[in-house]
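Researcher: Going back to the complex we discussed earlier. I've cleaned up the inputs and rechecked each line, so this should be the final set. Can you rerun the prediction on the complete assembly and write out the structure?
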Amino acid sequence: MARKSTVLKVSKLRRAYGPVTIVEDFSLEVRAGEAVALTGRNGSGKSTVLRCLVGADRPDEGTVEVCGHPVVETSARTRRDVATVIDDLDFFPDLSVVEHLDLLARAHGVPDADGVVDEVLEQVQLVPQSGQLPGTLSSGQRRRLGLATAFVRPRELLVLDEPEARLDVEGVTWLANRLRAERQDGLAIVFASHEPSLVDTVATRVVELGAPRG
Ligand SMILES: Nc1ncnc2c1ncn2[C@@H]1O[C@H](COP(=O)(O)OP(=O)(O)OP(=O)(O)O)[C@@H](O)[C@H]1O
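Model: Rerun complete. Updated structure for the full complex:
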């Protein structure tokens, strides 16, 4: 069988905040169809690594490439290839749930945007809330909308920071199955998680980050 192509290549990443080095000599290669779980204690640097992967933070040293191109948060290429759910997303206060998803799908040139948005709304169980504004959603529903934004658009790499946060038990099970299916369809995934069931179901590899050093 042909080896799957490398989607993400991280080489010798280092990130320090002041005198404290959080991440040092971190390298990672993720191929299409692989899912890497970043685990480790609070403060071990998982979010720091993920922010560097998507270009939301700049490493002090090292390089990050997606599909052979350097990651730059503002580049069209990076935005096309990388779907992220990290931190709490900012939503437009005056666009409804369905309008957010429509906007994203159309901006990314998704064929049959209406059909894709309807399908994802069903999957994240936000059909009854599709006309609501983000400010009126429950915190778990806002997380579901955040996840939906990643699923209505094209993607080669999915980067998720604690995607299970604020989901109910049924939601975590759905998410685990959905991410496993995405990986089996050939997507590359990197996610940080404290949820063992999610890691067990989704990850093909687990990378545990250590404690920060002073
Ligand atoms: N902008 C910043 N300035 C100073 N320190 C920071 C900054 N961002 C993160 N840190 C520190 O870097 C360390 C790693 O934080 P990070 O958020 O990457 O951890 P994490 O592994 O994702 O933790 P958690 O499991 O709690 O989400 C923490 O000690 C944090 O306080």
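Model: Worth noting: The chain has a mean pLDDT of 93.
Researcher: Good, that matches what I expected from the previous run.
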